[in-house]
Write a structure and sequence with these properties.
Layout lengths: L4 E5 L10 H8 L3 E4 L5 H4 L7 E4 L11 H13 L4 E5 L9 H10 L4 E4 L4 H8 L13 E5 L12 H7 L2 E5 L5 H10 L7 E6 L7 E6 L3 H7 L6 E5 L21 E4 L7 H9 L3 E4 L3 E5 L4 H7 L5 E4 L2 H13 L11 E4 L2 H8 L14 H12 L4 E7 L5 H8 L3 E12 L4 H9 L5 E4 L2 H11 L8 E4 L2 H8 L4 E4 L5 H12 L2
Parallel strand pairs: 1-4, 1-5, 2-3, 2-4, 6-7, 11-12, 11-18, 14-15, 14-16, 16-17, 18-19, 19-20
Antiparallel strand pairs: 7-10, 8-9, 8-10, 13-17
Helix pairs in contact: 3-4, 6-7, 9-18, 11-12, 13-14, 16-17
The protein binds S-adenosyl-L-homocysteine.
Length: 497
């Protein structure tokens, strides 16, 4: 059966500018054919098992010719694969999306088009330039300034100048001087405000704001690189006043988040909201154990407290009970202890409120609080990771408590982005790494190589994690308390400015 091809506009930068429709299409894709300009955070949304094909230009390589891309889309759809053609910005704006759809139509392949946020509008917005403004202009014109080698620019500058509107030129960096000369020759005053925006709407955005008469020299001096676009018009004069993006505290900083994928959204989104470029690089995976024998065995004995040390532990316990044909009522009569607020929230979402959460969110404080509550007697059932901290059971046992430790899931080391991270560390293009457990520190160190870690800022959720980072000679910083909010605040204080 022939499947649908969905053209998706990826937007100009990170996943926050991808539409919800585009996001849904990507998550359901069997195959994704994408351009070079598409951001990593969007590629991260592609399901693990799906085929990924990059058809964009890479350093020293030629892009895949358009007719091969067309044929590829038809082939994938005919193999019954839900295929997404992911394009930078909007799919139809200078992206050859029209040609692809004509080809699909001619070959009887059904297609959908989900437009994207175009760089032509988003890059100015992120640079503090509203493309229209009642006080300055009443139209905006988007023009390609792409030139074929040796050919002159084919743009009607007189017509453009006559509109009095804002002009946005894409693919115009190499022809920048031809564009500005063309405009002034057509009667535009040389002191008309103008700007070049490089990597617009991305953490690495740079802008050069000048006048049409001086823009080419200014951009040359600033060594502007592609992708970049040119904006010409009086609205460019607002770019200082309306700059909100580079004013964000972590603008221009790049941070890696090593937390497991299921749990990293809060940190990733929080850091992006602070303006940082974020690399989601999970360094551990959680694998739930299928076997429920140790849990059901433990439930035959009487316990006074059920103890959870992570949200994953709560979820794993609920699922393991279900697999064993039971549910949370199997813990009836026990009291519930949680290591911290996130674990307590996870338990609350199951309808149970925690009886005990220690003052500081770590194993040591949890153990002390439980010892106080249980007064050296009774039995505790630990429902947690196989590689959980030894401190907790030891302290409980030492104070005379009977402990049953049930391993519900394993934490497995992984790091799909090790090469990228190593490269960035070597090029000093990584400002810090967030760690929410010692196990992520060890896994990260193993993946990128401990010899690369000296002096790297490690933003840690608690003292045990910081200790692990220190053992690799990283520069550890510790959050005020073991919460995501405190870790975000730490990133802001350490890296701001
Ligand atoms: N379909 C895309 C444009 C493709 S043409 C869109 O709607 O955005 C490629 C050109 O787009 C580049 O040469 C550059 O001029 C511009 N461009 C794409 N992404 C950009 C970005 N993040 N910042 C500045 N310009 C960008």
């Amino acid at each position: 059966m022939t499947e649908t091809v969905t053209l998706v506009g990826a937007g100009p930068g990170g996943a926050e500018l991808l539409t919800r429709g585009g996001d849904a299409a990507l998550r359901q894709a069997d195959a994704v054919v994408y351009d070079r300009l598409v951001d990593e955070s969007i590629l991260d949304l592609i399901p693990k098992g799906a085929e990924r094909i990059c058809v964009g230009k890479k350093m020293g390589h030629h892009p895949v010719p358009q007719d091969e891309i067309n044929a590829l889309l038809v082939r994938l759809a005919r193999q019954g694969k839900r295929t997404v053609r992911l394009k930078g910005g909007d799919c139809y704006l200078f992206g050859r999306g029209g040609e692809e759809c004509e080809y699909l139509k001619a070959h009887g392949v059904p297609f959908r088009v989900l437009p994207g946020v175009t760089s032509a509008l988003a890059a100015p917005a992120f640079a503090g330039i509203p493309v229209t403004h009642r006080d300055f202009c009443s139209s905006v014109h988007i023009v390609t300034a792409h030139v074929r080698a040796g050919k002159p620019l084919c743009i009607d500058f007189e017509a453009l100048v006559r509109t009095g509107g804002t002009l946005v030129f894409l693919m115009g960096l190499t022809a920048l001087r031809q564009v500005t000369d063309g405009l002034t020759a057509a009667g535009m005053p040389p002191d008309m405000p103008a700007a070049v925006i490089e990597n617009g709407a991305r953490g690495t955005q740079r802008k050069v704001v000048s006048t049409v008469g001086k823009l080419a020299d200014a951009a040359e001096k600033a060594r502007v690189h592609s992708p970049a676009l040119i904006v010409v018009g009086r609205v460019c004069a607002l770019s200082g006043t309306l700059d909100w993006w580079t004013a964000l505290p972590l603008h221009g900083k790049t941070l890696a988040v090593t937390r497991p994928e299921e749990r990293n959204a809060g940190l990733v989104d929080g850091l992006r909201a602070l303006g940082a470029e974020v690399i989601a690089a999970p360094c551990i995976e959680l694998h739930e154990r299928g076997d429920t024998a140790s849990l059901t065995g433990a439930l035959e004995e009487k316990h006074d407290w059920a103890v959870f040390t992570s949200p994953a532990g709560v979820q794993a316990a609920v699922r393991a009970l279900f697999r064993a044909g039971r549910d949370l009522r199997a813990l009836y009569g026990m009291k519930f202890a949680c290591i911290g607020s996130a674990t307590a929230e996870s338990l609350a979402s199951c309808g149970i409120s925690a009886d005990l959460v220690p003052e500081a969110y770590d194993s040591e404080h949890l153990a002390d609080a439980l010892c106080r509550e249980m007064q050296g007697g009774g039995a505790a059932l630990l429902l947690r990771a196989a590689e959980g901290s030894r401190i907790l059971p030891e302290k409980l046992k030492n104070s005379g408590i009977r402990v049953t430790d049930v391993p519900l899931y394993d934490t497995v080391r992984c790091c799909a982005k090790a090469d990228e991270l190593r490269e960035r560390i070597r090029n000093r293009a990584l400002d810090g790494v967030t760690f929410t457990s010692a196990s992520t520190v060890h896994s990260f160190a193993e993946a990128v190589g401990r010899e690369n870690l000296r002096g790297l800022a490690a933003l840690c959720i608690g003292p045990v994690t910081a200790e692990a980072a220190k053992s690799y000679e990283m520069k550890p910083f510790t959050a005020q308390e073991a919460t995501e909010t405190a870790l975000l605040a730490l990133c802001k204080t350490v890296l701001e400015g």
